[in-house]
C-alpha cells in the first residue's frame, strides 16, 4: 500500500513542501505520496488521532504547530526536546516520534550557501517562536560566541534565553525588545537572522512590519550576513533592504531543502536527491509568484 507523508500547518498557502518532496519521490520511483493537511488549531488533536488510524508514515509540522504538536506524540527525540520544538514526526511501528531538522538544515545552508561559520561569532536573532528555538540552539551548538535575541514580545525572548542558558551557560546572551535593536553595537554583529514570519507572502499586513523597517541596516559592518528563513518570496523585504545597503544576504530556500532532506531520510531511510528538491522548490516558488 502507498506510504502517506505530508505537512501539517495553518495556513499552508506559502508552502512548497509538496512539490519538493514529490520531486524526490518521483525521482526515486518509490511508493510514497506527500500531501498537504491544512488543519485548524481546534482540530490538531483529532487530526493526529486520524493520522495514526490511517497509519500515515510521517509528516512535517509547520507554523503554528511546532510546539503544540509535542503534546500529541508518543515520544520525542532528545535533541528536539532540548530545542523545545518538533518539525518532523515519524511513525515507528504505530508510535509517533518527534524530531527537529530545522536547526541542522539552517546551519548546513548557512555554511554551504553563505559560506558562514557561526563559530566564535556574534549573532542577532529576530524572533522567539518555534523556528527561533531550533535556529538559536543550532547556532549555539555550532559555537556562536554571543547571542542577542530580539522579539516583539520581550517575555518570549526572555524565556528563550533562560531555556538556552541551561544548555549553553558559557555563552553570553541578551534578550531585548525588537524596538531597541538600534541601541546595539551593530558593527560587532556578524549575522542577523529573521526567524519570524514577517515578510512571508500574504502573512503579515503591511503596517505591522514597521519594527523591521526601523532597523537601520547601514549601521552593520559590510561583512555582516543578513539571513531570512522566510523563503516565499525568495527575496523578502528584509533581504531586499540588505542588498540595497550593500550587505551579504542569505535566503530561506536552502534551509527548507536541507531540513526537508533530513526529514525524508528519517521517514524512508533513503538519502534524497537534494539538487532535484532544490530545483523543484525554485520552480514552485516562481510559479506561485
Ligand atoms: P514559528 O513556530 O514558526 O516560529 P511562532 O511560534 O508563532 O511560529 O513564532 C512567530 C514569531 O514571529 C514570534 O517571534 C513572533 O513574535 P511574538 O513572540 O511577539 O508573537 C514573530 N512575529 C509574528 N508576527 C510578527 C510581527 N508582525 N512583527 C514582529 N514579530 C512578529
3D architecture notes:
The protein has a 6-stranded mixed beta sheet. The chain is α/β, with parallel strands linked by helices and 289 residues long. Helix 1 runs antiparallel to helix 10. It starts with a strand and ends with a helix. The protein has helices at residues 17-28, 44-53, 78-83, 102-114, 130-141, 154-167, 210-213, 237-244, 253-268, 274-288, and strands spanning 3-9, 32-38, 58-61, 75-76, 88-92, 95-99, 122-126, 146-151, 172-177, 191-194, 225-228, 248-250. It is built from 10 helices and 12 strands. Residues 63-64, 66, 127-132, 151-153, 156, 196-198, 204, 208, 211 line the site of 2'-monophosphoadenosine-5'-diphosphate. 2'-monophosphoadenosine-5'-diphosphate is lined by residues 63-64, 66, 127-132, 151-153, 156, 196-198, 204, 208, 211.
List the SSEs and their pairings.
Elements: E1 3-9, H1 17-28, E2 32-38, H2 44-53, E3 58-61, E4 75-76, H3 78-83, E5 88-92, E6 95-99, H4 102-114, E7 122-126, H5 130-141, E8 146-151, H6 154-167, E9 172-177, E10 191-194, H7 210-213, E11 225-228, H8 237-244, E12 248-250, H9 253-268, H10 274-288
Parallel strand pairs: 1-2, 1-3, 4-6, 7-8, 7-10, 8-9, 10-11, 11-12
Antiparallel strand pairs: 3-5, 5-6
Helix pairs in contact: 1-10, 4-5, 4-9, 9-10
The protein binds 2'-monophosphoadenosine-5'-diphosphate (ATR).
2'-monophosphoadenosine-5'-diphosphate binds next to helix 5.
